[in-house]
């Protein structure tokens, strides 16, 4: 069988579903990531 018309949309949907969980996790934990990065530059 040759290439199907569903190959490309299926690949795009799969890649979106793979990227979605880390993206959602980052949106909820962004505050702590930014605070951690800001604190690394502090010198006392």
TrEMBL record:
Keywords tagged on the record: Membrane, Transmembrane, Transmembrane helix
Residue ranges of the TM segments: 12-29
Report the protein name in the record.
ABC-type glycerol-3-phosphate transport system permease component
